[in-house]
Design brief:
alpha/beta, about 20% strand, L-arginine/glycine Amidinotransferase, Chain A
Amino acid sequence: MHLNSYDDFTRLSEIVVGSAAHYLGHDRDLTFELFFHEAIGGYRSDWAYPRLAARSTGQAQRWKINQQYTEELHEDVENLATTLAALGITVHRPLPLPENAEPIGGLGWQAAPIPALNIRDNTLILGNEIIETAPAIRSRYLETRLLTPVFRRYFDTGARWSTMPRPTLTDTSFDLSYTRNTATTLGGPTEPITDPQPSPYDVGPEMMLDGAQVLRLGQDLIVNIAQDNHRLGADWLERHLAGRFRLHRVWRMADNHIDSMLLALKPGMFLARHAGLRDMLPDAFRTWRFIVPPEPDPGSFPAYTDTDLVLTSPYIDINVLSLDEQRVLVNTDCTGLIKTLENQRFTVIPVQHRHRRLFGGGFHCFTLDTCRTGGREDYR
């Protein structure tokens, strides 16, 4: 059990699969609204989810999730873990969130925690180092504590274990500028966030950066920056990794995460939402081949009502998991993507994931690959 993960495409031997146990709802406070402000990432306002009409002074609105959907999510995540184990991959799991978990709190706020499901977000694995990144959503502030037993086992066998500075997460910790100018937003018409509440614990804008904002390519890291919190996080990461990795910044490829925009399937080949992403990349990676699947079929998604909180665009199924340079786990329902990859001579392993639009993640989000055969290669 030795940590070694520099990329997303060399042969996988160990992985952590998240947990959906006791996922009951969302705390819709400013941090949640800001994080998903442009998560539709695109071009049609009917993909947007219900916005809050108003915010009270620091009090979150609890948004419950249909119990059928949470049960089906749990089934699909457990099936994902079982599928990976059956393929000969060692699967590690986080601690499940306790049933009826007590609220967690910081300086001036409280939030109901959610399980460690989208575990790619708050952790970045770089070679033999675990980096706990700086969370941006209050309800996820202690999420990596559910992964502590796994991290400790890797640490005991020689892994490095680091943590980015933890933000205080008051309202004024956030760069809100890009939510106030609808001409520059990535998504469609959305409600601007204009009412941050003052706090005696304000320290100004803070670093926040998710692991899913980083595309790992051996020696090179492509980091998505959409606002000043991300810039500060990238500054910390670049200094922390000085002499070990080359960090390349891309500007607003997405509002936060880029792994439903661009993933490396193997050296020289990207899976991309659209071909225009090429122009956003560092010159050395613009020569790679771009595989662009067809537009998502609306009929491949469950039908939801206005009481269901849709968090992602239909492009979420680009969020695939590569087992090596040949085999790829893809959502069973995404037939266009499956056909595209098969035409490129990939071996597709279909796995069911029904409610990906409600829970903000796909197979790449749900997993944290900890052992792959690749090293700190130069893929430029």
